[in-house]
Amino acid sequence: MKIVSWNVNGIRAVHKKGLFEPFVKQLKPDIICLQETKAEQHQSPVDLMEYEEYWHSAKNRKGYSGTAIFTKQVPEDVLFGMPEDIAKEYGLSGDEYGDPNEEGRIIAADMGQFWVVSVYTPNSKEDLSRLSLRHDKWDPAFLTYMKRLEEEKPVIFCGDLNVAHTSDDLANPKANEGGHGYTKEERAGIDQIQEAGFVDTFRMFTEGNGHYSWWSPFRMARDRNVGWRIDYVFVSKKLAAKVKGAEIHADIYGSDHCPVSITL
């Protein structure tokens, strides 16, 4: 089974470029997890006959954020958003940018033997104005949610986590130290995910730098591979032995991110 995650930065834009269907044909995923769809399902021109589609689109800002799961297998259940009790426990509500719970940032599908979750973590912003929301509220709330799902069955969660975890996960760590996407607070969120027993699948197979999933659209950053690894697939420790491969598909274009995948 292959599970692929991709921040498409607007599914309509990728489709208009003629690059979405070729991506599906090339990777042949059983499950596709999307982030930053920037559309509601009825607005999407994509129609994949083999897949069931489940969408969680932003309510408070149309054409913003959003997640989706496309799957060949019909899920036993699909859950949308952060559970209300967890959001309340961590005080996760609106800020000057809006309410992250209304931005379509999480969708979870019960696939029988495990949960699959597509997540688009809030960006801390260039001026770090959303860092406290992320570090103090979102990250612990999301981890609590994943641990709750894991009480039922193992979890695979994937998506754009908007952080490079270590110096190997971005091309210029010294220049970006303390900046958004590479603060000690954001990186600590990944530390806590790992301490809770979730495994970064890519690092099971590949060490070192030079492996990135996002590139700035400026200064030919992608051509020069001056990028960041901010897209991840994490699995419960119970599933780690079943992961036979994890890849970053830097050869697939259409977004400022490229897809990442695991094979079970």
Descriptive account of the structure:
The protein is α+β, with helices and mostly antiparallel strands and 264 residues long. The protein has one domain: Deoxyribonuclease I, Chain A, CATH 3.60.10.10. The protein has seven helices and 14 strands. The protein has a six-stranded mixed beta sheet with strand order 3-4-2-1-14-13. The longest helix has 22 residues, at 131-152. The N and C termini lie close together (5 Å). The model has no long low-confidence stretch (mean pLDDT 97).
Low-confidence stretches: none
Total tally of structural domains: 1
Shape: globular
Question: In which range does the helix fraction lie?
Answer: 10-25%
For the record, the CATH architecture stands as 4-Layer Sandwich
Strand content: 15-25%
Give the CATH topology: Deoxyribonuclease I, Chain A
Largest sheet report: 6 strands, mixed
Radius of gyration, Cα only, in angstroms? Answer: 17 Å
